[in-house]
Amino acid sequence: MNLRDIGEFGLIDRLRGKLNPADETVVVGIGDDAAVAAYHPASHVLITTDMLVEGVHFREDTIDYRSLGWKSLAASLSDIAAMGGIPRHAVVSLAIPPAFAVAKLDLLYEGIGQICEAYHTHVIGGDIVKTEGPLVISVTLTGEVEQGRALLRSGAQAGDLVFVTGPIGGSAAGLSFLQSHQQSLVHPDEQSVLLNSHQRPQPQVEAGRILSQSGGCTSCNDISDGLASELNEIAIASGVGIVVEEERLPIAPAVRNFARLAERNSTDWALYGGEDYQLTGTLSPLAYGSLVNQFLMRGLELHLIGRVTEGQGVILRCRDGEEQRLQARGYNHFAE
Questions:
Q1: Do 182 and 281 lie in a common domain?
Q2: What is the pLDDT at residue 3?
Q3: Contact criterion met (CB below 8 Å) for 277 and 201
Q4: How far apart are CA 325 and CA 319, in angstroms?
Q5: What is the distance between the terminal CA atoms of the chain, rounded to a whole angstrom?
């Protein structure tokens, strides 16, 4: 048996089976966006970690090092946002080839500093080691959420509404734009949208806090591996089915326009592209009106894209009325 036989998630389950059961301070362990620990009776600690490997998660021809620093922390901030938490402290570790330029590391940490300032987070430690392989960036981030308020993937119920907090598909479109030979044909304003979507994603921490405090959000996930993958995770964890309306997917005009130019499908980018770092999840219908008003007052977006049903799996209802099952085809390490 090799890694391709069991896949990324099969490997996680296999390795988890080798560990001792967690102690009584662990509220949520392996299997959600972040772990939840109860070190204090009034609040829970959130802990999440992400690793970026050059050649797998980023390349020099598609992102500058200052933006890479921003994006390195954005992934972990988005995990905390998906749990409804407040990000607190990060430790950043690097595995660096000996010949790597110090100037690039300066830019990397400038980007890390920028996103920390924007999200009131602080880097408080880390580690640096030498490697003969590519650059590796590892981020571990802590957060905090009130006891009983952590948003999980497992609470969706039939009749709930399915939401997304903002435009999706932009990161995949931005990557395609960076790799294309048609950049000069795209309007400068739309170029900025595509580049920022891929290189400078905005974790939805404020949206996560509103959803957590509302009491009406029944499940939540961040869109790191693609909407189809994240909704399948919610459906499995909650034991429900989900129906998504294609015409309701929030896709930015810049993404749709570039998709037409590149002869690509913007819906595919929205469903399978990943790295949008928006939030998706489910709401009680009774909470929707209040939440929409709160989002509007904060200048935030909340889009309804479907409904939770009995059964299992995720269904896309296409514009022409056809229905198709959405497989979890987002990014998966070790997949073919």
A1: yes
A2: 66
A3: yes
A4: 14
A5: 15
What is the model's pLDDT at position 211?
98
In terms of domains, do 142 and 184 share one? Answer: no
Say if 254 falls within a structural domain: yes
Closest CA to 86 of 27, 53, 129, 43: 43
Which domain covers residue 43, as residue numbers?
3-146
How many domains is the chain built from? 2
Using DSSP's 3-state secondary structure scheme, residue 293 falls into helix
Residue 79 structure tokens: 């995990």
- In terms of Cα–Cα distance, which of 25, 29, 30 is closest to 43? 25
| Token pair belonging to 31 | 């299997």
Contacts of 123 (CB under 8 A, 6+ apart): 89, 90, 91, 92, 112, 116
Same domain, 141 and 176: no
Residue 331 lies in a domain: no
- The encoded tokens of residue 125 equal 């430690």
Report the candidate in 85, 102, 93 with the shortest Cα–Cα distance to residue 49. Answer: 93
The DSSP call for residue 259 is H
> Mean pLDDT of successive 10-residue segments in the chain (336 residues)?
73 76 78 79 90 93 96 97 95 90 92 94 87 95 94 97 98 96 95 97 98 97 96 98 98 98 97 97 96 97 98 96 88 51
Shared domain for 116 and 50, answered yes or no, is yes
C-alpha to C-alpha distance for 62 and 68, rounded to whole angstroms: 10
Type of residue numbered 158: A
Does residue 36 sit within a domain?
Answer: yes
Residue 267 three-state SS: helix
Q: Are residues 134 and 167 in the same domain?
A: no
pTM for this entry:
0.88
How open is the CA angle 289-292-297, to the nearest 5 degrees?
130
Closest CA to 308 of 234, 210, 208: 234
CB 207 within 8 A of CB 223: no
Q: Are 325 and 331 in contact (CB under 8 A)?
A: no
